[in-house]
Structures are given as structure tokens and as C-alpha cells.
Amino acid sequence: MANGTSNRSVVLNGVRKSYGALEVIHGIDLTIEEGDFVVFVGPSGCGKSTLLRMIAGLEEVTDGEIAIKGRDVTDLDPSERGIAMVFQSYALYPHMSVRDNLAFGLKMARTDKADIDKRVAQASAILKIDHLLDRRPGQLSGGQRQRVAIGRAIVRKPDVFLFDEPLSNLDAELRVSMRIEIARLHRELGNTMIYVTHDQTEAMTLADKIVVLRDGRIEQAGSPRDVYEDPENMFVAGFIGSPRMNFLEAEWLGEGTIRVGKATMRAAIDGTGLAPGDRLLLGIRPEHMTAAEPGPERITAEVEFSEYLGGTRYLYCQIEDGQSIVVEQREGRDWKAGDKLSFAVPEDRRRFFAKDGRRLR
Amino acid sequence: MRTRREIRARKALWDRIAYHGIGIGTAFFFLAPFAVMFFSSFRPNSDSGSPPIPPWPRSGMSFDAYRALDTFGAGIGQHMFNSLTVSIGTVLLTVAVSVLAGYGFSRYRFAFKNVLFVLIIATLMIPFQSILTPLFIILARLGLNNSLVGLMLVYVTLQLPFSVFMMRNAFDAVPKEIEEAARIDGARDLKLLVRVLLPLVMPGIATVSIFAFLNAWNEFFAALVLLSSNDNYTLPVLMTAVRAGRLGAINWGAVQAGVAVMVVPCLFVFLLLQRYYMRGLMAGAVK
Question: Which residue ranges traverse the bilayer (chain B) (predicted)?
Fold first, then answer.
């Protein structure tokens, strides 16, 4: 690929970060294509924010390099990287009007006055904050403040937008509408955006590419569909999806069959390295289990309690050998605690994992 | 029979009367000394020895007291100038040093940061009278004895521990993200400090300024010891000279006039900065 580098927006190459002897980011390699919306997800403390801040230039890179649009920016000042960042706490300048907040970066860059006015007007029109330009941040609501923070990023016309959990401080309803707003913005502006969140819904709905991080390592990077339907390991399978995927202890019987509880079922995996009697894990998402007539391939379970959510119900059950599972039930009769029922697990929905978390294919 | 509405209105009226009555009474006790002072400074010479109550001039207004005050030392204008020079210089230097030091202590990581900070704070416990002799010797060696600049440096030194502490707290209260946002916007170093952070720590600066000004303006002992020539006296030192009187006779009128002259700048500075000052004291109290 001779010209393949031209549409690469951000390239991380062996990026590491240590605080003293403690390494928190262990060599990240990642390529982000121009115009992609990339979401970093992971449990708290996984290093997703640190990684974003390293791209922004707010944290020093211990080792490795970061390139933005083919330019090595590893040791450049944040303002010279062609990035703009939106913070969780908005981080507006409280002593300046909204207009000055938007214009501050351009003033620092000694942009021509007429140009500043034009860009501020454009950005405020896109975000529908034109009527707020003369107010102070203290006089705005949370959603308006977040718009101003995004506006401050837009006026810089950056190559890459960085979002650090921008919606976490908003209430649930506003979060949904701002999420849609951000998606619209991405479509209109077409810039590369990198977005950090711990909210799966945000990740799944916004991302072109999800990067799942754990303990400073990339566990999997791929489209939302990839990470949801084809997780590379147990961590990703368990982390993406709510309620999380059920993992059931199973026994390898050889020749593509396993036993779970009392049920015996087919496992379409390559059994090399497995001996009959070996333990493995069967992963099934709650929505993929359906109530069915009892049979040899069926898992039978007893309902412990059920949650009614209107459109759907979650049944918390225990199977014969004592393992717990969660089942999502969209239709059919109501089940009460103590009821026994059987589940079918469609063969193409079964995911298998080794005891160490590796996916078995 | 009265309706509940009337009863409530009556109760509210009495509450208001009590509230304002107590407020006015308290204010009276705070304001009375100022009133007495200002009134009696306008008594003519013949009146100045009469009893303080009633305080107002009985035989007509006059500026005798102020004229008398002007005959002491090098004239009140000169001493006012001395005091203002020292006080304003102290404020400016204290603010400049404590803002930089407070910022450093708040934001940078360096070896022995906390030890150093505690050490600076600990100097608050040393009564400055006990180090006056060494200070005198040091200033003499530097050729700064009997100079206003020397006195100013001493005041700044004494003022810094509290000021650095205050400014560190002020900077600690500024969220780190604001600074980071400014760095992304391209504000660096001094620009970052002046354009973004300074307005946010204004309450701290106001507090530091008020304290520095009042302490420098009212300080007597160091000024008495370090200043030797009449022309360099600051107002507090001048006032003792006035009060000491001539041949044992004290010109009370001149004393009152001197006090009045001294009070005005303090009131002015406080009223100018009080809006920020109150916020400074409250900073960090809640959330």
C-alpha cells in the first residue's frame, strides 16, 4: 500500500506510559483512519483517558510515538498538534463570555479578527448557541455548557477531535440528545473523532470503531458489530453487552460436543489441544436464549427472580449444576421465582472460551 | 377576632423591627469610634482639650488640627507619601512573589515540596520582634538601613508565608482541566497565568493585597527601629512623634487629625477589594 498512509489520521506506535516504575500503558499500536469515529471503552483505570490525554499532549509519552496526519507529534505542544479536546467537566473559562470562550484559542493563535468572528458565528450556528454568546458559563445549563465546550473545539478546525467522557455530567435524557448531536456533528464535519467513555450505549451507537482496553492494553479493536458478535476473548465478550454475556462451565466430550450441566450440545470449534474431560466455557448472550421444550440439547434452569422492564424481561436463573445465568425474554408467558424452564441455545450463537479467556474457534 | 393573615402580618412586622433594630444598634457600636474621630478632628484649637463627649465641634468647624499636624516632621504630605510608597510597594511585591510561589506549589511536582511548604508556613510562628536585630544588621550590610526600600523588603518578607499559603489554596481551587483546555488553546507559561488563571484567583489576590496593605500601612515597630531620619518616617511613626507632644503637652487635635488621615486609605482599599475578599475567605468552604 504505497498511498495507504495518506488517509491515516492518527497512528500510535508502541506507545507506553509509566509513572516511575509503574507502567500503565503497555505498548499500544493503533491506526485510526481519516474521518473515523473511534471510541475507547474499558473499565475504570484501564488507561483509556490516559491514552487520550497522551494523544492530546497533556500527558508525556514515555516510549513510542504518536503521529497525526503523518506528522510526528510525540513531543509537540498540545496547541501544535492539530487537535481539540472536550472535557468531561466542560472546562470553560468562567470569567469570559461564551464568545470569548470560543475565540480564545484563535486569539492565542493571532488569528485575524474578522476570521475569528466568522468562525465563532459558524460554530455557534452549528451548535445553536448563537443567542448565548454574551452570557457567562455560570449562567448556562449543563447541556448548553457542553455545547460551548464542543464549539470551542470546532472553531479550532482541528484534524482530530478528542472527547473525554463528554456526556457523563449530563442527565439521562440530555445525554441521549447530545449523543445524537455529536453523531450529527461527526457526519457534518467529517473529522476524525476519538471518544472516551465507559458507557456502552454511547460506544456502540457512535463508533465506527471500538477499541476495548484493559489494564493499558488493547483487548480488541473493531466495528461495534465485530466486538459484539465476534469477541476475541472473554473480557471483551463480557464487557460489551448489557446484561453481560453468560459464561457457563462446560466439559469437552471430544468430537465437537460439550456437556453443560446435564445438556449435551454441539460445539463448532476446532478441538485440537483439547482432550475429553477438559474444561472450557460456553458464552451465550441473554437475548440469544429462548424458552423451548425440554430435550437433550436444552439447558434446564430454575427462575430465581425476574425483572420486568416493559419491553423486555430479565430472568435470573440457576441451572442444574448451580451456575447462574441471565435470560432476556421478550415475549411469552411470565415466569415466577421457582418455575422450571428449558432453554435452547442456537448453534451459531454459541461462543467458546478456554479457561484462560482465549476465544476457541 | 383577627384573621390569621393579620396575625402573620403583625408577627412579620415585629420580626422586621427586631432584626433591623439589632442591626442598627450593632452598627452604631462599630461606627461610633470613627464618627468621634472624624468629628473631633474638626474642632478648633481652643476646643481640642475639652471632654470627648459630645464629640462634634462646639465653637465652629476648623481645620486647625490638620494645620497643626502638618507642622510635625517633614509635613503630612511627605509622610503620607512615605507610607503609600512602602505599602503599595509591599502589596505589589507580595502579590508578584506569592502568585508565582503559590502557582508553583499548587501545580508542579518537585523534591521536598511539602517539607518546603511547611517550612515556609512554620515561619509564621516566629515573632518578628525576635529577628529584628539580625534584620537590622542585614539591612545595614546591604546599605538599606534608613531606607523605605529596605523597610518594604522587610514587610514583604513578613507577609509572604501567609500570602503563599493563601495563593496556593487559591490555585488549588482552580480545576486542572481549565488549565489543560488553555494549553490546548495555545496559552503557555506567562500568558496562561495572566490571561486564564489570574482572573480565577482574583479573590486570593484581593485577600493577599488587603492584608499586605493593612499590615504595611499600620506597622509601627519595624519602621521605628529601621528608619532613623525624620523625613523617612511612615505615618505610624509620625503619630508617636505627634502624640509625644511638645514639653509634655499633647496636641489632641493633631492626634485625631492624624488618625483620620491614616484611616481613610485603609477604608478605601478595603471597600475597593471587599467583594473579592469575601469570596476569598469563603473559597473552598463548600465544595
Answer: 21-42, 84-103, 115-142, 148-171, 192-217, 249-273
